[in-house]
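Feature request, filed as a ticket because there's no other form

It would be nice if the structure record came with a short human-readable summary line next to the tokens. Right now we just get the raw output. Example of a typical job, pasted below so the devs can see what we mean:
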Amino acid sequence: MKISSTEFIKSAFTQEHWPRDARPEIAFLGRSNVGKSSLINSLLGVRGLARTSRTPGRTQSLNYFLINNRFYFVDLPGYGFARVPKAIKASWGEMASDYLAKRRELVLSIQIVDSRHEPTTQDLQLNEWLQHHERPGLVVATKSDKLSNNELRKNMERIRKTLHAETVVAYSAVTGRGRDEIWQVINVALDAGF
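Raw output as currently delivered:
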């Protein structure tokens, strides 16, 4: 897909803040520090649109980015390692589950895992939730450039088996590996969803 425009629109903390324009939405979900913002920026070919940080848990809201004036990328708060108060962590989980359960415009959920590590219990729970609620999804394993081809092949198979995923796309924000495959899935979701 040719990207002609990207724009940060808003941060949403509650359902009342969600956009009302009925454009389709692609959600990005994953552990804190798994590379969600880097994935979004590299898919769009821009720097700094989605904020990256070395400190886990920086994303504390649903962040909406309007792409080509046609659809949204939605960056959800990460789960897991964030060093924040438990009450805030709980509200993030509630915010994300409300969005995933209720958002009619959501046409694809991209679950991001780290290719270097086995999926966590939280990764598995999120994947099972998406499958149970029959939400269209794609698993993307980031940081694939940090592994040898042999290690990557083994880890991808382990991720596939653990998450019971038909397809897992190996991705690298550094080399662009997997970019075309992800855009193919996004295009199909956009065409089918609206």
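Something like this underneath would help us a lot:
The helical segments are 36-44, 86-102, 121-132, 149-163, 179-193.
DSSP finds five helices and seven strands in the chain.
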